[in-house]
Amino acid sequence: FINLWRCYALRHGLAFLLETDDTEVSPPHHRAANWMRWFAARRNLAFYRALLVVDPDEFVVPECWNMSIPGILGAWAEHALGAGPPDVAMRDFGKPQTLNNGVVLIRNSPRGFFFLDLLLEKAAWMQTIEKDQGAF
Predict the structure, then answer these.
(1) Does 80 have pLDDT greater than 80?
(2) How far apart are CA 130 and CA 102, in angstroms?
(3) How many angstroms separate the CA atoms of 83 and 77, rounded?
(4) Is pLDDT at 25 greater than 90 in this prediction?
(5) How do residues 44-60 score in pLDDT, each as one tens digit?
(6) How far apart are CA 50 and CA 31, in angstroms?
(7) pTM for this predicted structure
(8) Taking Cα atoms as reference points, which of 14, 11, 19, 72 lies closest to residue 44?
(9) Of 69 and 16, which is predicted with more confidence?
(10) Could you tell me which residues come within 8 angstroms of residue 99 by beta carbon, excluding any fewer than 6 positions away?
(11) Confidence band (pLDDT; 50, 70, 90) for 39?
(12) Do 63 and 36 contact (CB within 8 A), yes or no?
């Protein structure tokens, strides 16, 4: 589904980043590869207004192909009584669902960086459920 996200980004005039640097998950770190995207997000967030961090197994459903994520956030800002878009947005889960951080929006804001810093503190934790998902 990676190329689908690349096409989505091109369609909406967005940048597309594909992390291939596995330094933070290679020995001596012994972290799951799942953590690569979070280290990449921390390194790159300062260069963008926001990042959409996506697991490679996530995809854009046809109904959403023409919807621009920045456009949706712009509409949110207009109608949220001055609150603006969120600094961090992700899927919530309830019974009987499981943890899922497959798609997370992080804004370039103090709270966005704070979220990433707190998350990455957990990268060294052992025996978390579903690797990086257990950190949520």
Answers:
(1) no
(2) 12
(3) 7
(4) no
(5) 999 998 999 998 888 88
(6) 25
(7) 0.82
(8) 19
(9) 16
(10) 93, 129, 130, 133, 134, 136
(11) very high
(12) no
Residues in contact with 58: Cβ distance below 8 Å, sequence separation at least 6, in sequence order? 1, 5, 102, 103
Q: Rounded to whole angstroms, how far apart are CA atoms 67 and 8? A: 10
Whole-number Å distance between alpha carbons of 88 and 109: 9
Q: What are phi and psi of 99, to 5 degrees?
A: -55, 145
CA 73 – CA 87 distance, rounded (Å): 11
- Provide the 8-state DSSP code for 82: T
Distance (Å, whole) CA 94 – CA 29: 33
Locate 22 and state its tokens: 């596995």
Query: What length is written for the chain?
Result: 136
The tokens for 56 are 């490679």
Mean pLDDT, the chain, rounded, equals 83
The residue-averaged pLDDT of 79-95 equals: 71
Phi, psi of 35 (to 5 degrees): -75, -15
Tokens at 21, concatenated: 């640097």
